Structure formats: structure tokens, C-alpha cells
């Protein structure tokens, strides 16, 4: 917790229970000195405003370098994710068990594609 600078930066997760539990079992979970976790479990009863607030908190934290978010959760707060233009923390949209990944919805991927010519990606 206080040693995060010595160990490096954190990965945070916003997603369904299965996704969060999987990453927590993989050792991603942390609670900082202010007792704030680096993950949020989202279910059908979670208000969109809570997902939005959590994402904004993760973006402001200096101990987080990557935010993993289920794509279906990202769709709920697309306007907030689109407004995040800083490279750090990096935002990566990932699939969930019930919602497959759709590259056409990923705003970060669309932005990255715009930086390269199609021939560069071959």
C-alpha cells in the first residue's frame, strides 16, 4: 500500500463480479492508505453515476496506470471515457462473460486507428 512506488503502479478494474473476482484472484486488488480499493463491481442495480464517479476517481489517482473496464460498463459512461485523453492512466476495454468485445465500440481503439495509416498496421 505505502510501498506502491517501490513496487510500481497499479491496475484498476471496473466490471462485473466475475471479471473483478478473476483479477483479484490474480493479485490485482489493493486498498490504498485512504482505504479506497482499486476495483469496482458493477451489477444491474449499480447507478451509472457511481460508475462515472469511480472512473473519475481512478483517473485522478497517481498510483493507477491502467484502468481495465468491461466494455458494457464503458458504454454506460462513454462520454466520460471519450473525454479522457491523457495516455496515463491507459483505459483498456475488455469483454465480460456475458458481453463479447466489439472493437467498433472501443473509443480508445478508434482514436489509435486514427493515428496510423492502414498500411502501418499490416
Automatic annotation (TrEMBL):
It holds the Pfam family ATP-synt_F. One of its GO terms (cellular component) is proton-transporting V-type ATPase, V1 domain. GO terms for molecular function: proton-transporting ATPase activity, rotational mechanism. Transmembrane segments: none annotated. The keyword tRNA processing does not apply. Keywords: Hydrogen ion transport, Ion transport, Transport. SUPFAM superfamilies: AtpF-like. InterPro entries: ATPase_V1-cplx_f_g_su (IPR008218), ATPase_V1-cplx_fsu_euk (IPR005772), ATPase_V1_fsu_sf (IPR036906). It comes from the Eukaryota. Belongs to the V-ATPase F subunit family. PANTHER family: V-TYPE PROTON ATPASE SUBUNIT F, VACUOLAR ATP SYNTHASE SUBUNIT F. Subunit of the V1 complex of vacuolar(H+)-ATPase (V-ATPase), a multisubunit enzyme composed of a peripheral complex (V1) that hydrolyzes ATP and a membrane integral complex (V0) that translocates protons. V-ATPase is responsible for acidifying and maintaining the pH of intracellular compartments and in some cell types, is targeted to the plasma membrane, where it is responsible for acidifying the extracellular environment. V-ATPase is a heteromultimeric enzyme made up of two complexes: the ATP-hydrolytic V1 complex and the proton translocation V0 complex. The V1 complex consists of three catalytic AB heterodimers that form a heterohexamer, three peripheral stalks each consisting of EG heterodimers, one central rotor including subunits D and F, and the regulatory subunits C and H. The proton translocation complex V0 consists of the proton transport subunit a, a ring of proteolipid subunits c9c'', rotary subunit d, subunits e and f, and the accessory subunits VhaAC45 and ATP6AP2. This is V-type proton ATPase subunit F. The lineage of its organism: Eukaryota, Metazoa, Ecdysozoa, Arthropoda, Hexapoda. The gene is VATF1.
